Amino acid sequence: MNFLEQIESITDTRIDTNKEYELVDIVFVTIAVLLSGANGWKALQLFGDAQLEWLRQFRPFSNGIPTRHSIGRIIRGIKSECFVACFNQWADGFRSANDKEHIAFDGKVLRGSKHGDKVNALQLMTAMVVDSGLVIYQKETDCKTNEIPVMQSMLSSMLIKGCIITADAMHCQTETAKLVREGDADYVLQVKNNQKNLLKEINAYFHKTTRDTPDLLAQRHYHELDGEHGRINERHYRILPITDWFEHTDKFKDSNSVVEVQRTRIIKDKIQQETSYYITSLQANNVKEISNVIRRHWAIENSQHWVLDVTFREDDCEIYAANGARNLASMRRVLFNLINEHPLKDSVAGKMQRACWDAKFRAEILFGQKTDKA
Fold this sequence. Notes:
Layout: H1 3-7, H2 23-35, H3 41-50, H4 52-55, H5 68-77, H6 80-92, E1 102-110, E2 122-129, E3 134-141, H7 147-157, E4 164-167, H8 174-182, E5 186-191, H9 196-212, H10 214-219, E6 221-228, E7 231-241, E8 257-267, E9 270-280, H11 287-296, H12 299-310, H13 324-341, H14 348-357, H15 359-367
Parallel strand pairs: 1-4, 4-5
Antiparallel strand pairs: 1-2, 2-3, 5-9, 6-7, 7-8, 8-9
């Protein structure tokens, strides 16, 4: 099912006298505008007028393109929960049931959606399949402290069987671990000061093992060294099975191992060092696999969030009223998936630039390689 067919499932809440323009038409032209690198209702109207002939290859646009004010009113009138449900269902169709997916959760603030002291910036919790780069689920959260129940709600709603779930230290919660295991998935969660007793215990255990049985650590050690442009990154991963020595790990359902990561970054003459700890339901027999999961968790920050901010200029978009910011955020993530799915080897920015001036390529992004309408 392509995204236009999925959009047809969105409930149109307008009264009949206000339906001069089809809802699907307006959503379609909005997504096409975002793909071409533009933001704002004025740009949307200008694009629609200029590309009306191309747009009519896919949708009727019987009454042409509405004014920018009407476009804004129509998009804001879509209930954001309906659009998000539509997006989540559509994105789920990209997933492969046979793969052991690594799903990373993280929150993102849309800074441009803040309006004075009256309207807080919109924040979304997002779930991304790390290997494919696909955003498969998103949900709004009111503020930073509300990320925990929002992620737990997402875990309860998602199909996560066989997956590995990662999140930042805020989500190192016993209830989160329980929901992951009840979904027949595994977790790798960073432990920080919100779990002080557990953090102290893991730190002490690695110190004890280093002192008493260093050979055990050497057997479960993985080393990475990389860098570029004068920067050197070195990482040491060590993993140990949880034993009866621990008192606080039992609270985390089916916890099996603890991980220590020592990171060193050298930039010119400056040396930065840090040590992080993790708790996981994975077994302690494959330190390389677990190190890959820990390192790649930040793909959701480095690939998705960076692209949305820099390429889509999400933080620069100052649309805030009603559901406008929420629905545009969902559309950007629709595009993020569509662009990543296109086989052309190029950056997101490169594909968007090409889509701006190449109508055939724009159609390939939006409808797939098999389209014969462009």
